[in-house]
């Protein structure tokens, strides 16, 4: 029926002009006082007219509100009928009550007895129903439990036990049933807790394990790359947010306020959040929420250990397709993802538990995230203790005598037969930065490490380790970055320092650094303390691998490889890069001392009172400064600077442009200065390095030290530019790593400066070796070419002087040793200008001769030709300076007059001093000439050379001859 609108009340502001009764009285008065019928008729007509108008308006209103009026009349009729019916019913009830009152008063006692019997029979029937309900409860509870309808089973058990504790408490026949129900109740409590634990530690992590297992097998590489990208921190956070879906579900306001129900027609585990709510609702009904909280806290760590054990056994079948370290990273990353899911599951449980406690007015002292993360960190610490072999590492790190510090004492014995005096040298490096750290035993967790990997079945007191790879401190290199990302996530979550971070930091500083220290010490000790440590060179295969053109000392390469291992550790463990860099610096400092001792063993193999002349020259700062100021050295120095300035990329050096005249002037200048520093005393055998093998060792040391310094500079530039890190395992296979967003401590600029200084020190040692070789060849020129007594007349002019022959043989041997040991640019530096030095010495030897004749002149020319041929074979260029020396000795075929005439005709070819020595030797050789004749010839020579054009020509030569150091 359509709703009938209520009648509308006229507006309050509209009032009738006058009352209808007043109007009627007015008409009556008018008719009574009228004098004639006409007046009455007019009043009558007026009244009829008004009635007609009123009827018309009434008809219009009725027509307009006909439907509303009809509805009102219908409603009025219905209400009137209901009121009449109600009045009739009330009248009937009154009559019935009066009849009941009359009847009750007739047989009251009999009725009371019947009513009491009825109540008793009803109660007996109710008790029988309750007994039947208790009897059937066991079957129904079993059915509910088999289908995991725990809420129905809980309600049934609670209600049934409540029945048994009520009116039926004294029934002896029900005691066995109640005992079985109590047993079912305890079993239900354990089942509910097991289901809750299963949800937290198994169901929530099942997806992670399945994802990891899909990545094994033949598609392992592709799956690994996919998992590596998924483990980026930004994506890890998104994954963690998705894993909190259940938490978002339970935090919904409607979910938190509504009562938990259970639909037995649906899969109870389809909605995991609802299933958790059902479990906790059951525990709340059983008054076991506080006990559940305590049990969850107590069994948390044990469950986490079981989780580690299950994951290990699940990954073990797939390790055949990956390296052991890769398998360890796979295990760790799988566990980290599972721990995230476990935390999310705990969050879901805690949220639902707090809601359930509020609904049941139950006070709970729940655990928080700090407790969860604390247990996870403890489990990870125990896990790391086994895989990093902390127990054995701590025993290995006991202080031991540093045998490496004593190896420098025996280095010089490799270069001499004489037993050296022992001197104390600094140790390889120290751990000053770790002096205040606790011992390794102080951070070994209290939890026994034997509990971290266990069998899933069997006696829990007899657990068996199942390691995915061998325990090795080196395992930290592949798991450090994933661990630090996880630690950063923990610290951001709990807003407190992470104990796992402290554990890891203490292990690295107090255990791993010491372990690697011992490892490096042993490796370098083996490399540098063997008998041929400073003679053994790299094989061709290794030289090709190192991309070097000349062999290096194998000991130097092994030291650099040990340092490279530490460099890789700086990339693998970036948070402790500064500690590793300090270790590298201490290694380099000690190795620098060892190399300096080795250098001294080469250049001073005998007692200190017998020194090598080239080394003595090199100690003269003026000579060293002069040699380093010459263009040929600046060319070598430019190459070294190009290595330093081009960020470790070696390029071909741009040669300093020198013309032939510049080269000649430079070589003449060097020869003049070295000759002037020698003086008139000769050089004996013990003042030179006569053993070519010693020079070869020096050359190999020079090449090795320069290469070593270059490697250090490359490393310095790498640290300055901070390249992206990459990890590799022992088989050069990539280890899955993820970028870490936390701020890695910056490398101290002081340490970088120390590295640069050490690189300069090694380069300076290389420079010293090269300068010694450069000077040694020239010193041997003095030794072999300057006569230590008057040269005697020879009968056979075709024979070469034995000293010249020996010198040529020595030069060839040195060239052969230098060619295989040094780069061509260095060999060029050693032998370039040697012809000028030899020419200078041969020309200077004229003043030491008493007499000279044609056979001796022929022999000297033959000596010069032999030396020129030897040098040409070495330098592959004709030594014009030796032609100049030969021309000088050809002067002795002439008379003094012919020499002077030649100067006048062709101009001076030699200096005034050289002409004077020649004239004096010719005069001494011709005994028939008077002494006054030589003075005339010398005076005439002076007059000729004082000629202005000639003087201008000789100005450069005389200036060179006047240079003194």
Automatic annotation (TrEMBL):
Disordered: annotated segments: 1-22
Keyword Iron appears in the UniProt entry: no
The alphabetized UniProt keywords are: Coiled coil, Exocytosis, Protein transport, Transport
Q: Using the record for this protein, list the coiled-coil segments as residue ranges, or answer none.
A: 37-64
Q: Which GO terms describe its biological process?
A: chemical synaptic transmission; Golgi to plasma membrane transport; protein targeting to membrane; protein transport; vesicle docking involved in exocytosis; vesicle tethering involved in exocytosis
Location of the Exocyst complex component Sec8 N-terminal domain = 46-137
A single Gene Ontology CC annotation of this entry is: growth cone membrane
Q: Where is the Exocyst complex component Sec8 middle helical bundle domain?
A: 327-432
Q: Which family does it belong to?
A: Belongs to the SEC8 family.
The record describes the protein's role as:
Component of the exocyst complex involved in the docking of exocytic vesicles with fusion sites on the plasma membrane.
The protein in question is named Exocyst complex component Sec8
Query: What is this organism's lineage?
Result: Eukaryota, Metazoa, Ecdysozoa, Arthropoda, Hexapoda
């Amino acid at each position: 029926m359509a709703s009938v609108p209520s009648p509308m009340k006229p507006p309050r502001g509209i009032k009738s002009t006058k009352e209808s009764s007043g109007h009627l009285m007015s008409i009556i008065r008018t008719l009574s006082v009228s004098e004639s019928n006409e007046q009455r008729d007019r009043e009558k007509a007026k009244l009829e007219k008004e009635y007609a108008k009123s009827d018309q308006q009434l008809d219009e209103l009725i027509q307009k509100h006909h439907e509303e009026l009809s509805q009102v009349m219908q409603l009025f009729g219905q209400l009137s009928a209901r009121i009449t019916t109600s009045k009739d019913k009330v009248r009937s009830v009154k009559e019935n009550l009066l009849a009941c009152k009359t009847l009750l008063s007739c047989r009251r006692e009999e009725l009371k007895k019947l009513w009491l019997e009825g109540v008793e029979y009803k109660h007996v029937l109710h008790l029988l129903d309750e007994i039947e309900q208790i009897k059937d409860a066991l079957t129904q509870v079993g059915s509910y439990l088999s289908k995991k309808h725990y809420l129905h089973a809980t309600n049934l058990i609670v209600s049934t036990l409540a029945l048994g504790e009520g009116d039926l408490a004294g029934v002896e026949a029900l005691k066995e049933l109640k005992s079985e129900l109590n047993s079912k109740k305890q079993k239900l409590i354990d089942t509910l807790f097991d289901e809750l634990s299963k949800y937290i530690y198994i169901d929530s992590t099942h997806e992670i394990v399945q994802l990891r297992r899909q990545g094994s097998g033949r598609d392992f590489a592709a799956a690994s790359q996919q998992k590596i990208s998924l483990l980026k921190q930004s994506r890890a956070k998104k994954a963690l947010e998705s894993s909190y879906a259940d938490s978002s579900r339970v935090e919904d306001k409607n979910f938190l306020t509504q009562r938990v129900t259970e639909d037995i027609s649906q899969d109870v585990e389809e909605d995991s959040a609802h299933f958790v709510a059902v479990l906790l609702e059951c525990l709340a009904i059983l008054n076991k929420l506080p006990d559940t909280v305590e049990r969850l806290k107590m069994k948390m760590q044990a469950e986490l250990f079981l989780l580690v054990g299950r994951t290990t056994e699940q990954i073990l079948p797939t390790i055949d397709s990956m390296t052991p370290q890769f398998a360890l990273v796979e295990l760790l990353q799988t566990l980290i993802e599972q721990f995230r899911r476990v935390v999310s599951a705990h969050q879901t449980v805690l949220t639902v538990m707090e809601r359930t406690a509020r609904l049941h007015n139950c006070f709970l002292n729940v655990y928080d995230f700090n407790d969860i993360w604390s247990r996870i960190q403890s489990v990870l610490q125990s896990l790391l203790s086994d895989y990093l072999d902390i127990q054995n590492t701590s025993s290995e790190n006991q202080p031991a005598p540093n045998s490496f510090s004593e190896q420098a004492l025996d280095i010089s014995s490799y270069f001499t037969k004489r037993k050296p005096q022992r001197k104390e040298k600094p140790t390889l490096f120290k751990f000053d930065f770790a002096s205040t750290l606790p011992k390794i035993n102080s951070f070994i967790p209290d939890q026994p490490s034997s509990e971290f990997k266990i069998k899933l079945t069997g006696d829990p007191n007899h657990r068996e380790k199942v390691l995915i790879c061998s325990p090795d401190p080196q395992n930290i290199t592949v798991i450090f970055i994933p661990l630090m990302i996880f630690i950063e996530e923990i610290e951001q979550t709990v807003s407190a320092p992470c104990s796992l971070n402290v554990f890891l930091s203490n292990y690295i500083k107090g255990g791993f650094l010491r372990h690697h220290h011992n490892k490096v010490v042993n490796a370098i000790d083996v490399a540098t303390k063997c008998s041929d440590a400073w003679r053994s060179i790299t094989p061709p295969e290794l030289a090709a691998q190192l991309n070097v053109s000349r062999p290096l000392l194998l000991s130097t390469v092994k030291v650099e490889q040990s340092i490279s291992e530490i460099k890789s550790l700086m990339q693998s463990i970036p948070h402790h890069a500064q500690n590793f860099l300090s270790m590298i610096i201490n290694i380099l400092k000690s190795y620098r001392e060892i190399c300096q001792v080795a250098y001294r063993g080469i250049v001073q193999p005998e007692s200190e009172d017998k020194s090598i002349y080239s080394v003595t020259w090199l100690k003269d700062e003026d000579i060293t400064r002069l040699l380093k100021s010459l263009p040929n050295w600046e060319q070598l120095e430019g190459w070294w600077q190009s290595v330093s300035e081009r960020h470790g990329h070696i390029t071909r050096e741009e040669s300093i442009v020198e013309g032939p005249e510049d080269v000649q002037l430079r070589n003449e200048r060097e020869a003049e200065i070295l000759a002037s520093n020698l003086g008139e005393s000769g050089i004996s055998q013990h003042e030179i390095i006569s053993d070519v093998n010693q020079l070869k060792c020096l050359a190999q040391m020079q090449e090795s030290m320069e290469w070593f310094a270059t490697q250090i500079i490359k490393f310095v530039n790498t640290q300055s530019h901070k390249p992206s890190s990459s990890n590799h395992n022992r088989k050069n296979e990539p280890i899955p790593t993820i970028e870490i967003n936390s701020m890695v401590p910056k490398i101290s600029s002081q340490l970088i400066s120390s590295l640069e200084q050490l690189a300069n020190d090694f380069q300076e040692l290389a420079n010293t070796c090269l300068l010694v070789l450069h000077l040694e060849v020239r010193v041997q020129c003095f030794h072999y070419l300057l006569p230590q007594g008057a040269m005697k007349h020879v009968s056979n002019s075709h024979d070469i002087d034995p000293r010249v022959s020996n010198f040529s043989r020595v030069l060839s041997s040195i060239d052969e040793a230098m060619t295989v040991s040094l780069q061509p640019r260095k060999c060029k530096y050693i032998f370039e200008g040697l012809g000028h030095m030899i020419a200078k010495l041969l020309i200077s030897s004229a003043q030491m001769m008493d007499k000279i004749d044609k056979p001796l002149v022929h022999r000297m020319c033959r000596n010069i030709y032999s030396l020129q041929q030897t040098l040409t074979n070495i330098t592959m260029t004709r030594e014009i300076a030796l032609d100049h020396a030969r021309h000088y000795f050809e002067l002795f075929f002439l008379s003094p007059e012919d020499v002077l005439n030649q100067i006048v005709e062709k101009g001076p070819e030699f200096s005034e001093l050289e002409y004077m020595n020649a004239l004096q030797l010719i005069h001494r050789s011709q005994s028939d000439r008077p002494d006054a004749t030589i003075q005339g010839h010398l005076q005439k020579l002076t007059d000729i050379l004082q000629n202005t054009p000639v003087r201008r020509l000789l100005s450069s030569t005389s200036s060179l001859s006047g240079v003194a150091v």
